[in-house]
Amino acid sequence: MASTDTEQRTGADPAASDNTATDNSAPDATAPDQLAGLEAGLDALETRASQRAPLGRTLLSKAVPPIIAVAIVLVLWQLAYHFKLKEHYLLPSPVDVGRSLQEKWLEGTLLSYVWTSLSRGGLGFLISVAIGTPLGLIVARVKPVRAAIGPILSGLQSLPSVAWVPAAIIWFGLTDATIYAVVLLGAVPSIANGLVSGVDQIPPLYLRAGRVIGANGLHAVRHILLPAALPGYIAGLKQGWAFSWRSLMAAELIVNAGDLGVGLGQLLEQGRELQDMSWVLSAILLILIVGIGIELLVFAPIERRVLRSRGLLVKS
Fold it and tell me: pTM of the prediction?
């Protein structure tokens, strides 16, 4: 009887073990199929995200809206001219302004006006970046310096740049140094404050992890602080360029000497002196075009690249 019971138990065990083996092996058999399906789904998502939109759709979404906006402005401008909201010598038509630009182009002086201001603005901005970046890092990381200089930077940023023009003329005279001084005083605080804001938004975990792996001093600045603070830093650079461009125009309006060359600000002032509104509006239009062009050609691509690298912007 004992042997029979043993045989029965023994006979029952293989069946149970077979069932158990079958139950355990079933998920293993389907796991590769599930994993393959998951990988296929992820590949499909990546494929859809990386596909380029048709050229026509891209033009429709990006080029047409600005064109429509410009057309609306021109229509409203022409209507204001037609119904004589101001005398024609005070408010010329778009055609008159276009004719004024054409005259400057045919004279061969239009590009020289633009290049004079653009080269001044670009050089002043680069110097501002070279000064504002280390200043922003020091203010962001050294508490006594921040307590002493932080409020001054905020105050300088809110101060109109044109307020520095009389003082700069007294210091440097009617020279290029006056123009660059005004540009620097307008742009440096914005760049420094932008970097300070970017550093303040860095999670403390990044800094602790950097110290653990031995990133100290300049290595921490290069590999942790600046990359982590990049969105705020770029915002500060954009604002710094806007301040430097506005400061430059304010300086060129007032600092007018024969040996300085003629920039867009001087061109605007000449139009005011001659009471030629077509000339004045032409200069304003050129200043606007240069500002928009720098934003679209320089800062917008950099900003998109940074956002894509952080997964905050996906190619459509």
Answer: 0.73
Burial 207-224, CB ≥16 within 10 A → b, else e: beebeeeebeeeebbeeb
Place of tokens 């540009």: 183
Other Cβ atoms less than 10 A from the Cβ of 160: the count is 11
Query: For the chain, what is the total number of helices (H) and then of strands (E)?
Result: 15, 0
Q: Which tens digits make up the pLDDT trace of 52-72?
A: 556 667 666 677 777 888 889
Residue type, 132: G
Sign of the C-alpha dihedral computed for residues 291, 294, 295 and 299 taken in this order: negative
Write down the H helix ranges in 108-175: 110-141, 143-158, 164-172
Place of tokens 């429709």: 60
With CA atoms as reference, report the closest residue to 241 among 281, 311, 300. Answer: 300
CA nearest 138: which of 230, 225, 204, 232? 225
In one letter, which amino acid is 255? V
- Which has the closest alpha carbon to 261: 127, 107, 111? 111
Helix axes of 264-273 and 230-254: crossing angle, nearest 10 degrees = 40
Strands (E) across 152-311 are located at none
* Cα(66)–Cα(162) distance, integer angstroms: 31
CA distance 157 to 186: 7
Residue 178 structure tokens: 């006056």
Mean pLDDT of 284-291: 90
Distance CA 10, CA 16 (A): 10
Place of tokens 């909201």: 85
Query: What amino acid is encoded at 108 in this protein?
Result: G
Whole-angstrom Cα distance, residue 175 to residue 89?
34
